[in-house]
Amino acid sequence: MEQNDIRGEAKRILEHYLFHSDNNFVFSISPFGVGPEKRKAILREWHSFERPDIYSNYNGKIYGLEHFEYDAHGRGKKGSLQRRENVKIKQSVEEEIKEKFKDHDSVTSFRELKSKANEEDYKANFVDSFKAHYSKIDEYKDHLSKTFDIDSKDIPIWFIAEDMTMLGSYFVCRNKPKQGAEPAFPLFFPEIEELFLKSKKLEGIIFADNCNKVLTIVKRNKKAVEMLKKHHHYFGESLFFFEPRIASTAIKIFSVKE
């Protein structure tokens, strides 16, 4: 991975998903319908950009990558309830610990999210984010075209869709219950698969698993989507989500005077 001119979204993704292996930093990837050269092209030489967030310049060809997040919680006027509640919880915990420290040398504070993760919000949030960014693909292509003086028709666009649901999104295969929880993907659902396959301005999508730190790369075609489902043994099961409970512990440390 070449890390040239990296900042913003690109920097955060690289810092979170890259790991050290054989004296090099690499992604953990799971590809479907995408060969080795294409994987190199969209993942190796990232540069920060704006509209789209990232571009890759591989062997003289420009690829645009636009990142967006989604989760399985409801959304209010100001965005994700999960994110808003998490911020409030952290503030509440800090205030409680500060107050209890007046009378105790160690303090533990517990909280849980009021909003509950669910399958319908998972699907709706992904679709909303996907459509909002897809509507701007012509703008992304035009911006890259003017910057690099190339025909916009020659610029493939990929999405990086990051599941930010706390503790992740999962299902259990009814035919293989002993293998435990498998990661879920929006493309499991027929209406989202149809939306993806009809989105002809998009070359493919990269699902970023925030919890397991794996990039799942899916080419925009029916065979690739079927490969994804088959690999994870998905046969229409309902999704499930762990209920996160947030705990914070603080201990006073006293210096020893000689």
String of helices and strands? EHEEEHEEEEEHEHHEEEHEEHE
Strand content: 25-35%
> What does the radius of gyration come to?
21 Å
In whole angstroms, how far apart are the ends? 51 Å
Structural class determined from secondary elements: alpha/beta
> Which percent bin holds the helix content?
25-40%
Explain the overall architecture:
The structure is a single chain. The chain has helices at 8-17, 36-43, 81-100, 119-134, 137-148, 190-198, 222-231, and strands spanning 2-3, 19-21, 24-26, 29-32, 45-48, 54-58, 61-70, 75-76, 79-80, 106-112, 157-163, 170-172, 181-183, 204-209, 214-219, 245-251. It has 258 residues and is an alpha/beta fold. The chain has one domain (2-72, 115-231). The strands form five sheets. Strands 1-5-6-7-11-14-15-4 form an eight-stranded mixed sheet, with helices on both faces. A hairpin with a 2-residue loop joins strand 6 and strand 7. The longest helix is centred in the middle third of the chain and has 20 residues, at 81-100. It is globular, with a radius of gyration of 21 Å.
Label this structure with key terms.
258 residues; 7 helices; two-stranded antiparallel sheet; alpha/beta
Short description:
The chain has 258 residues and is α/β, with parallel strands linked by helices. It has seven helices and 16 strands.
Question: Which helices and strands, and how do they pair?
Answer:
Blueprint: E1 2-3, H1 8-17, E2 19-21, E3 24-26, E4 29-32, H2 36-43, E5 45-48, E6 54-58, E7 61-70, E8 75-76, E9 79-80, H3 81-100, E10 106-112, H4 119-134, H5 137-148, E11 157-163, E12 170-172, E13 181-183, H6 190-198, E14 204-209, E15 214-219, H7 222-231, E16 245-251
Parallel strand pairs: 1-5, 4-15, 7-11, 11-14
Antiparallel strand pairs: 2-3, 5-6, 6-7, 8-9, 10-16, 12-13, 14-15
